[in-house]
Amino acid sequence: MAQEHRGHHGPHDQGHHHGHDHAPHGPREDHGGQHGHDGADVDWAVLAPLLESQAELFAPLYEGAMAWLARGTAGEPGLIVDAGSGPGVVSAQFARAFPAARVVAVDGSEPLLERARARAGRLGHADRFATLAGDLPQALARLEYPADLIWAGNSLHHLGDQRAALAAFAEHLAPGGTLALLEGGLPARYLPRDFGIGRPGLQARLDAIEADRFSRMRAELPGSVRESEDWAALMKAAGLEPAGTRSFLLDLPAPLSAEARAYVVATLDRLRAGLGDGLDAEDRAALDRLLDPEDEASVHRRPDVFVLKAHTVHTAVRPS
Ligand SMILES: C[S@@+](CC[C@H](N)C(=O)[O-])C[C@H]1O[C@@H](n2cnc3c(N)ncnc32)[C@H](O)[C@@H]1O
C-alpha cells in the first residue's frame, strides 16, 4: 500500500540549498559527488540546456509513460524518487501527474539540482519537492522513507555496476513499490534516409558510432561491469517482480516547431563535436552542411526535418 509522505518527509537537504557555493564549473569538476567519470568527459551541468530542452520536447512521451505507470501502481504513490533526475524537468512532470506525491530528485550534479529546484518553484511544486545531491546509488541511503515509485530515466546506464545499483534501488522501495527504468528504445530519426546530400543512410552510420561510444563510456565508468541488458531479468535478480515493459513514441512530423528544430540542431551539433574521426570525409561534409545555418539544405532551414524517437520503460514491483 502506498504510504503518505506529504509535507514533512524527504531527505535531510530538502532542497533548501540556495546558499550553496556555486563556483563556475569547468570540465571534470566534482559536482556534489558525481565526477566527470563518464568516458566522454561529460560535464552534466554544461549539458543542462540540452537536457532541459530535450525533456521539455519529450513531455508528451513522458505523459504517456506516467499515465501507464499510474494505471500499474497500487494506490497513489506517496513518495516518488527521480534517480538521476538531471535538471528535474521529468521530476516536475511527475509532481504534476501525481498531485498527492512528494517528489525527490536525486543526482550527482548539484548545479542541475539547483535548476530542478528553481523549476519546481516556478511551477508551484516547491512544497512537495526536494533534492538530494550525491552519487547513485549510495545517495539513496539518505532518503528518510522508502519510495513508492523510483524512476530512473536514462541514468542507470551511467552507473558502473548496474546490477548492484538495481539491488540498491530495490532496497529503497516500499513493499508494493515500483521501480521504473527508462532504458533503450530506438535511436532517433530526424531526416529521411536520403535527404539529398552525400551517401544515403547517414543517421544509421551515426547510430553505429554512437553505439561504440556508449560502450566505451560504460567500460570507462568506475567499477564498470558488463551486463547483458535484460532489464526484466536484472530487476528480478534484485528481488523485484517484473511488471511490464512498454515503449513510448515521440512523433513530431515535419514541419517542426522552432523549439523542436533547435533541439535537432543542438543534438546533431553535439554529436558532430563528439564524433572524433569516426565518420568518413563524405559523411562529415554532409553533417557540416546540415549544421551550416547559411545553407538552405541545413537542418536550420530545410522543411523535411522531423523527430521520431521511442523510449522503453521497464517496471518491476517490490513484493509486499
Ligand atoms: C542522461 S542524464 C538524464 C537526466 C534525466 N533523467 C532526464 O531524463 O532528463 C543522466 C543524469 O544522471 C546523472 N548521473 C550520472 N552518473 C551519476 C552518478 N554516478 N550518481 C548520480 N547521478 C549521476 C547525471 O548528473 C545526469 O543528470
- Please mark out the parts with pLDDT under 50 across 5 or more consecutive residues, or reply none: 1-40
Our count of domains comes out at 1
Spatial strand order of the main sheet: 3-2-1-4-5-7-6
Radius of gyration: 20 Å
Based on secondary structure, the structural category is alpha/beta
Largest sheet: 7 strands, mixed
Bound small-molecule species: S-adenosylmethionine
Strand content: 15-25%
User: What is the class in the CATH system?
Assistant: Alpha Beta
Shape: globular
Helix content: 25-40%
Count of alpha and pi helical runs:
9
Oligomer: single chain
CATH homology-level superfamily: Vaccinia Virus protein VP39
CATH topology type: Rossmann fold
Characterization of this structure:
The protein is of the alpha/beta class. It has a single domain (48-317), classed as Rossmann fold (3-Layer(aba) Sandwich), CATH 3.40.50.150. 33% of the residues lie in helices and 20% in strands. The protein has 9 helices and 7 strands, in the order ααβαβαββαβααβααβ. It has helices at residues 48-57, 59-72, 89-97, 110-122, 162-171, 202-219, 231-237, 258-273, 281-290, and strands at residues 79-83, 102-107, 129-133, 147-153, 173-189, 241-252, 307-317. It has a 7-stranded mixed beta sheet, with helices on both faces. Helix 1 crosses helix 8 and helix 2 packs across helix 3. The termini are close together. Mean pLDDT is 88; it is low at 1-40. The chain binds S-adenosylmethionine (SAM). The site of S-adenosylmethionine has 20 residues, from helix 1 and helix 3. It comes from Streptomyces similanensis. One of its GO terms (biological process) is methylation.
